[in-house]
Amino acid sequence: MPTGAELCLAAQDRLRTAGVADADRDAGRLFQHALELATGQPVPRHHLSDHLTHEAAPDLARTYARLIDARAARQPVAQIVGGRAFWKHDFRVTRDTLDPRPETETLIEAALAEPFASVLDLGTGTGAILISLLAERPGTRGIGTDISPAALIVARENADRIGVCADFMESDWFSGLSGEFDLVVSNPPYIALTEMDDLSPEVALWEPRQALTDGADGLSAYRAITAGAPAHLAPGGRLIVEIGPSQGAAVAALMAGAGLADPHVLRDLDGRDRIVCGRKPR
After folding, report:
1. What is the count of structural domains for the chain?
2. Residue 145, annotated ligand binder?
3. Which of 73, 97, 113 is the last residue of a domain?
């Protein structure tokens, strides 16, 4: 039988041939996950060297081959292992949800810059944004909405596992919602239909299309959100949305047109426009 290291080297070659950008990293992460599946317990990274130098058991080799097959088909690693780290927690991820991305943490930072007692997350997906905010502000009331019942199941599971009390409901943006919130946040579908062909296979083939694009110019969700936000924001309440890097001026203009004050754009760690913030006048 080959050693763990030999399995990993062969997997790296397979993934490179399949066009995977980070073949070495992904092969290592999936080998670790295969070990965890085979042993039924977590395997710290610093213990991997022991498994790499020894012959791999047949069940480990079969499990690892199955995981590499999935990655060679360009399924995202987060879906294969079933989770993704975001902010301070690990979130369950499925094909019914977007994979939480590091750049979205810019929205978390902006939201936490001021106090709030209630938050509404539109298009919650995994619940990563809402749950992260509620975990940082114990006692805060929060609601997450989504049009996908399957995504809401994932969000509820994440909230229960992380230990955050949140409400979730099926809703098309503000439909069926009542009351006002100190904070409304959203990472809506913002990819224009004309941009869909440029997406990587990991995104285009494996993530839910309705969470990626509006099938139009990429601004439909922002039109609905900015139009409905004033009625659901408390005086002085904030609207914070994630955007595509070229959409800052357009989304800020939509906020201004809806009567929100001081619409402004924030950049992510890579220097790209990422967040637009506005406020309901007091």
Report:
1. 2
2. no
3. 73
